[in-house]
């Protein structure tokens, strides 16, 4: 029988990605993790408590730039390389943990399930929309710092609009992530190529 907190969270993570929060019952969770309801309650008193713990661990912690990306060498080119590698590493964790049972979510990928989870955070996680916005703004701030530094050191043109460039990189990432999640998941090599194409336009 599974009694490890991490195993409970991993199993619940798969369920919350596979279906809406309302459809995930405590009975489904207990069956998947191999515990009684009492056993689950020893860790998480309510389904919402469990959902919050899942989101904290597999969304906000994994996507935290402080742990997601390695320190770059100060150049914007290296920042892009480290950023894409961080995305690739995070995706590997998500796909590995989020492989969905075909009987639960036939034909869907873990990537699609993860974006599905983001929508649920907006609805069910306390103040979820604000926390998601904070996560996005934190990510943009890392781009902002890297771009300003690159402009200052002459790597990028001094006439660029930094805020517009941040949005361009952000929208490339989000757009590709969404579209490709509908199929086989984000192609990080293509993401890197797209980022570098814009870099070539911006550099001195």
What is the helix/strand order? HHHHHHHHHH
Q: How many strands?
A: 0
Radius of gyration: 19 Å
Beginning-to-end CA distance, first to last residue: 60 Å
Mean pLDDT: 90
Which range best describes the helical content: under 10%, 10-25%, 25-40%, 40-55%, 55-70% or over 70%? over 70%
Main sheet characteristics: none
What structural class results from the helix and strand content? mainly alpha
**Given the structure, what is the number of helices?**
10
- How would you sum up the global shape? elongated
Q: Classify the beta-strand content into a percent band.
A: under 5%
Task: Name the descriptors.
204 residues; mainly alpha; 10 helices; 72% helix
Task: Please render the helix and strand layout as text.
Layout: H1 5-18, H2 26-33, H3 37-43, H4 47-61, H5 65-68, H6 76-98, H7 110-124, H8 128-152, H9 162-181, H10 188-202
Helix pairs in contact: 1-2, 1-4, 1-7, 4-7, 6-7, 6-10, 7-8, 7-9, 8-9, 9-10
Can you describe what's shown?
The chain is an all-alpha fold. 72% of the residues lie in helices and 0% in strands. It contains 10 helices and no strands. It has helices at 5-18, 26-33, 37-43, 47-61, 65-68, 76-98, 110-124, 128-152, 162-181, 188-202. Helix 4 (47-61) crosses helix 7 and helix 6 (76-98) runs antiparallel to helix 10. The radius of gyration is 19 Å and the shape is elongated. It starts with a helix and ends with a helix. The mean pLDDT is 90.
